[in-house]
Amino acid sequence: MKNKHILVTGGSGFLGSHLCERLLELGNEVICVDNFYTGAKRNIYHLLDNPRFELVRHDITFPLYVEVDMIFNLACPASPIHYQRDPVQTIKTCVHGAINLLGLAKRINARILQASTSEVYGDPTIHPQPEEYWGNVNPIGVRSCYDEGKRCAETLFHAYWLQCNLPIKIVRIFNTYGPRMHPNDGRVVSNFILQALQNRDITIYGDGQQTRSFCYRDDLIEAMIRMMDTPDEVTGPVNIGNPGEFTILELAELVIELTGSKSKIVRRPLPSDDPKQRRPDTAKAEKLLKWQATTPLREGLTHTIAYFDKLLKEEPDFCKQ
Ligand code: NAD
Ligand code: UDP
Ligand code: UDP
């Protein structure tokens, strides 16, 4: 991918900012659209001087008129704390946002990729989760605004492909972590690392036996770009994640070991509808993208710990939880 004009929505967020950076490195022009709901200007400050980078403050629930070759749609709060703060806005971002961007893609005949999520599988009854699995989602629970919003966005993408022959791509992203995660978004990796670095109690929700599979952000970004580069007939959905599966208790113990922390583990109530297990079946990604996640959890956590350690020293107020 080179010399393309590319729109990245949610470009000032955790994953979006890394994607913008990588697309610029590859020699593309990037328009980053973001309403700064959870994103931060600090994530993209270093890109503002680049003449091939443009930042537009805009909420994707409203129409958008730009001319590009490709669209990566990442705009949407991703952590439970943030997406549950204003559930209606989360649904509007997923649904109205998708309609606007699909309408835009249709008008200019651009390729468009949707950042979907493993949450479309809900609390899965099939393990690991292949793309064929339809999921087990509560339509009216605390997580529904996100889960059902993202499911509807997939349906919209699919409908524009069927009806308008639009070149669409859907990736289902499993838990991804790395430097630039927001210190306050309550996700398990950032929470545990910040707690451990400050020798505060590590908060495990429930018994800690629930599992997640953690993908390092560089692996994820590589897979998204490969997906965008697939032939038109490859629409997805394709799971992207690291199949290494860990209990939340194992994650806590690993973070304590890697930080040399004196933190104690404490229990907190399990939020409702919290999925009990999650692991991607990545056979499709391996076949279609010639890709698999290569960063082991231990290595990715070491980079992420170094990032938060520096952030705590340089910007302690930003890290207050
Ligand atoms: P993030 O919260 O850091 O980034 C989301 C970005 O979207 C932010 O910059 C936010 O300000 C912006 N945004 C939100 N609503 C918007 C709107 N209406 N208009 C314009 N911008 C808006 O989250 P992230 O972890 O970088 O996630 C990026 C995408 O990847 C999301 O779509 C998320 O659902 C998806 N995803 C992430 C993960 C993960 O583990 N990080 C897992 C599955 C899916
Ligand atoms: N849209 C947009 N930018 C464009 C073209 C369309 O934001 O360049 C929006 C437009 O506001 C519309 C939505 O995309 O609400 C869906 O467009 P589509 O053409 O599919 O449907 P229609 O305009 O017929 O409702
Ligand atoms: N979790 C936890 N302690 C925390 C934050 C999260 O035990 O401080 C648990 C949470 O209940 C869930 C898992 O860790 O079972 C992953 O949570 P996260 O919010 O990171 O992602 P998601 O639930 O959306 O996969």
Give a verbal description of the structure.
This protein is of the alpha/beta class. It has a domain at 5-181 and 215-243 and 279-294: NAD(P)-binding Rossmann-like Domain (Rossmann fold, 3-Layer(aba) Sandwich). Helices cover 37% and strands 17% of the residues. It has nine helices and 13 strands. It has helices at residues 14-25, 80-85, 87-108, 144-164, 188-197, 217-228, 248-259, 283-289, 297-314; strands spanning 5-9, 29-34, 53-57, 70-73, 111-117, 168-173, 176-177, 202-205, 211-213, 215-216, 238-240, 245-247, 265-268. The strands form four sheets. A seven-stranded parallel beta sheet has the order 3-2-1-4-5-6-11, sandwiched between helices. It has a two-stranded parallel sheet with strand order 7-10. The longest helix is centred in the first third of the chain and has 22 residues, at 87-108. It is globular. 45% of the residues are buried. Nicotinamide-adenine-dinucleotide binds next to helix 1, helix 3 and strand 5.
Low-confidence stretches: none
Can you name the CATH architecture of the domain at 5-181 and 215-243 and 279-294? 3-Layer(aba) Sandwich
Q: Mean pLDDT, rounded to whole units?
A: 97
CATH class assignment of the domain at 5-181 and 215-243 and 279-294: Alpha Beta
User: What is the succession of H and E elements?
Assistant: EHEEEHHEHEEHEEEHEEHEHH
User: What is the strand arrangement across the widest sheet?
Assistant: 3-2-1-4-5-6-11
Number of helical stretches of at least 4 residues: 9
CATH homologous superfamily designation of the domain at 5-181 and 215-243 and 279-294 = NAD(P)-binding Rossmann-like Domain
Sheet having the most strands: 7 strands, parallel
Task: Bin the helical content.
Answer: 25-40%
Q: Any idea what the shape is?
A: globular
Broad structural category: alpha/beta
Alpha-carbon Rg, integer: 19 Å
Number of strands: 13
- The proportion of strand residues reads 15-25%
Kindly, what is the distance between the CA atoms of the first and last residues, rounded to a whole number of angstroms? 39 Å
CATH level-3 fold name of the domain at 5-181 and 215-243 and 279-294: Rossmann fold
| Distinct small molecules | nicotinamide-adenine-dinucleotide, uridine-5'-diphosphate
GO biological process, one term: D-xylose metabolic process
Pfam family, one: Epimerase
Organism: Victivallis vadensis
InterPro entries: Epimerase_deHydtase, NAD(P)-bd_dom_sf, UXS-like
